[in-house]
Predict the 3D structure of the following.
Amino acid sequence: MAQDDWSKPAAKAIPKEGYFELEQGRFGPLYPRTPACHGFTIIAKIKPGTEENIRAYGDRIEKTIAELPDALEVLRLHYLRWVLFDIEGATYFMYQGIFDTDFDKYTEDAVALFSKYGLNTVFENLEGFPMDWKTNPQAFVEFVRKHQRPSFLEYGEYPYVTADEIKKALKLKRAFSEMLDQMQ
Amino acid sequence: MTPSRRVETRTPVESMLEFDDIQHFLLTRTPALAARYEFLTFPDAGCGRAWLAGVLDKVGTGKSVGSERLDARWVTVAFTWNGLRALGVDEGSLATFPEEFRQGMAARAGILGTTGANHPEHWVGGLTDPALHAIIILFARDVAERERCKHEHLGLLERSGVKPLSSLDLEAVPPLDYSHEHFGYRDRLSEVAIEGTGAEPTPGSGRTIRAGEFFLGYPDETGLVPALPQPEILSRNGSYLAYFRMQEHVGRFREFLREHGKTAEEQELVAAKLMGRWRSGAPLVLAPDKDDPALGADLQRNNDYDYGKMDPYGYACPLGAHVRRMNPRDTAHHMERRKMIRRGGTYGPHLPDDAPEDGVERGIAAFVGCASLVRQFEFAMNVWANDPRFAELGNERDPIIGTQDGTFDLTIPRRPIRKKITGLPAFTTVRGGAYFFLPGIKALRYLAAGASAAKS
Ligand code: HEM
């Protein structure tokens, strides 16, 4: 399939709804895989006065990953980006993730991870987040869905390549250069 | 496999499980050789209540079935969301049930992957009809006992005015000395051990699973009790059931084995690669090259393996084989949140080994029991059975239960070069399905009394 040609950069424009054809997943419409893989962008207003609280999570997560490098392995991530920004006096939190799975399929894994590593509590600083999310997973999922902003353009310089494939290729490269070194 | 560290820190829940209130269905595997399912509709609430009041005393509980080994029949009743409404549950309460249950199985077809020939538009027995309100499941020691109960129940239907939409008779596939389905695979080998029931997991099956994964009102694997549908008297001690009637195309299956295996031994190996176990039950991970019937029959040994350490690349058991998909063991995350309790049996006549396909419908009619249809059953169907990208396989679905239309493959890893079977045929077709709520006994009384009894 042409879609698998990583050597040919690709861009994809996405309709306003965030998908081409409505396909229901377990928790709502499915968002398509694009040249930039699967992903989401969640944007929500923060509760006043919680900005420092939220920023502190940066350090916390850095430490968690330093100690447990495979803590987030389940999510099959490429990148996470957390951003705080202001609009008209209010502060917003943007959580952008790029990964290789359809988020709908691994929603419960994500929720479980969030609570395991205390990531959940960062959400508790957001306006409208259901405080009973632990015993009400549906409310958690609905919050995330409500604040998801689908992209209207995604681009990949090496489209449709999974993080696993990249890691495999890099491993191979390392093994290969070691082999060349040995042959000197 | 090593049990999770969390085991020691748990408080025992032995005394907590209300065995006298929980229906026996998900707690005990009964020694039934025959069964009958009746799919019912209530012309009005009065009929429904009269029927329920008449059947209530016969419904087995965890307590009664656990202690009386001499029973000859076991009765279970469960309701669709429409059925709860038909019995008079008010709109406010109905809205507190989870969305997937409210929608019903047919509406979730896209999510389950039951498309094409498996699509609900082809289903039989009136299961997609909003008039489907209830199921009564009768398990019996033998066919004679089933027939006796059937007549008794017919009397109750006539007295109450409740009407059957359809029914299905089930019988064990001969030879009867061990449990197996129409393709010939030994069944009932793996079973979830629920914490607080006294059941011990067989070696290799992992640790016990918290009761809240199957019964509402108890802590689940998060350690918390999920929010209950309201009122609690209706939901506590209840479970959800996903019902599936799957036709097995035995002639096509045997033809496929002949096509891909020259000798009887080769054919057995092909059958084993599809399932992940030999037809004897012996798991491929423990018996990769040659069948081992003694191992297959030995519950102390036939689950004692993992995939991640013992067979990471699938040289023994293909990554896409049915049992590896339905329970990836140590190669999937949060397995303790994805467990399902399986119940059910086979229907339709046995097709003798040497007989050609006779066109008669036969298959399994099974229930998956859980506390969350979306998290347990729908996940299994959506991701494990029907996601072509499961385990990076690219273009495969479960060879036994996935929706197959001749366009998917099965990769059989081998050294030096893997083998790929392309264009797998459909060995099964979904002929019907529905979601039911399996209430506790107090809830049944509450429903029989018009869903308005005092809350205690
Ligand atoms: C015609 C349809 C089916 C056939 C012939 C079939 C056959 C089998 C057999 C022979 C086994 C091995 C015995 C055992 O572990 O107890 C098995 C295991 C299993 N099946 Fe199926 N099955 C069918 C449908 C389903 C469905 C619809 C589901 C759930 C969505 C399911 C879930 C499982 C699970 C969870 C296991 C246990 C795997 C393990 O723990 O290793 N099966 N099946």
Observations:
- The pocket of protoporphyrin IX containing FE is lined by residues B 181, 183, 185, 187-190, 244, 246, 248, 275, 277, 322-323, 326-327, 340, 342, 363-364, 368, 380-381, 400-401, 428 (CB under 6 Å).
- The first helix of chain B runs from residue 45 to 55.
- The two ends of chain B are 44 Å apart (CA to CA).
- Chain B touches chain A at residues 98-100, 108, 110-111, 222, 224-227, 333-334, 337, 374-375, 378-379, 382-383, 387, 392 (CB under 8 Å).
